[in-house]
Amino acid sequence: MSEKLIEFKNVTYFYDADEEEENAPLPSPALKDISLTVSKGEFIAVLGHNGSGKSTLAKMCNAILIPSSGEVTVEGMTTSDEDNGDLIRRKVGMVFQNPDNQIVATIVEDDVAFGPENLGVEPSEIRRRVDDALKAVNMYDFRLKQPHNLSGGQKQRVAIAGVLAMRTDVIVLDEPTAMLDPVGRSDVLSTVRMLNREFGITVIMVTHFMDEAVLADRVIVMNRGSIVLDGTPEEVFSNTAAVKSCGLDVPQSTEFCSRLGIKKTVLTADEAVEEIIKIYGGAAK
Ligand code: ADP
Ligand code: MG
């Protein structure tokens, strides 16, 4: 797990750096001196209230944004050198919040083929990649459908297939479930988790759902452009006061068990049931 994939070194980012007037007060940076190492195979959840810098951090990972100072490297390649842009985008794919803004074609399989076509992959290989990607996200049966007839969760899975077809090592998802209903959310999440666990794809997922963050190996909490907490879900959510001081909640099961006086940091409803049975007994199964 220790092979470095993405590294942020003292990264600061100002959105309006170019338009600064002379002597104008410096705006506050969207990212402030961020240092972060993402290792191969990790599943990282990024949390933080609105405006804390999550999307800015996400866009730094595949050179959509370039640091104002400091450096981001992907497998050692700096994003500050434009010549690395193409290679970096082949390594790191992005999935955004709104599924409708990411679908470009009128047939599902054409949409998934769009990325590899742009990379100049040969047609027989594209066919194979599109089929594999659609099967991986469980959307193969929909390959000839029109995306506008799909649900939000299905569209997000098509968007994820589009990234898979480019054979990227890392998927960065910026609040991929924010616009979905509970079924869509759960389908997208289990897809993302499976890609991480079974295919070894490194995942960086921005989310504002605490119950999604507990699925990750590592949780990063941002506040005002800085990383303020970074650890396993247990480590981060056991620090309830620090999480709340960033304007966030801990998962409901965590809060519930802590109020019951249970010392262990519980993260999910299943764990909560287990702990409660230990204390109060009962035959719940
Ligand atoms: P989050 O995704 O956590 O809500 P963002 O990364 O979008 O946060 O934003 C971080 C900060 O940068 C906020 O103060 C936001 O207002 C500012 N910001 C975001 N996008 C832009 C932009 N395109 N132009 C200027 N400021 C921006
Ligand atoms: Mg955002």
What brief labels describe this structure?
single chain, 285 residues, alpha/beta, Rossmann fold, 11 helices, binds adenosine-5'-diphosphate, binds magnesium ion
Characterization of the model:
- The chain has 285 residues and is an alpha/beta fold.
- It has one domain (4-250): Rossmann fold, CATH 3.40.50.
- The protein has helices spanning 54-60, 85-91, 108-118, 123-136, 152-164, 182-199, 210-213, 233-238, 240-245, 252-259, 269-280; strands at residues 4-13, 31-39, 43-47, 69-74, 77-78, 92-95, 170-174, 202-206, 218-223, 226-231.
- The strands form 2 sheets. A 6-stranded mixed beta sheet has the order 6-7-8-3-9-10, sandwiched between helices. Strands 2-1-4-5 form a 4-stranded antiparallel beta sheet, with helices on one face.
- A hairpin with a 2-residue loop joins strand 9 and strand 10.
- Helix 3 runs parallel beside helix 5 (152-164).
- The model has no long low-confidence stretch (mean pLDDT 92).
- Residues 15, 30, 48, 50-56 line the site of adenosine-5'-diphosphate (ADP).
Q: Please identify which CATH superfamily we are dealing with.
A: P-loop containing nucleotide triphosphate hydrolases
Strands in their spatial order, largest beta sheet: 6-7-8-3-9-10
CATH topology: Rossmann fold
The pLDDT mean sits at 92
Distance between the termini: 35 Å
The CATH class assignment is: Alpha Beta
The distinct bound ligands, ions and cofactors come out as: adenosine-5'-diphosphate, magnesium ion
Give the name of the CATH architecture.
3-Layer(aba) Sandwich
**What is the number of helices?**
11
Coarse shape: globular
Domain module count:
1
Main pleated sheet? 6 strands, mixed
Query: Which bin fits the share of residues in helices?
Result: 25-40%
Strand and helix order? EEEHEEHEHHHEHEHEEHHHH
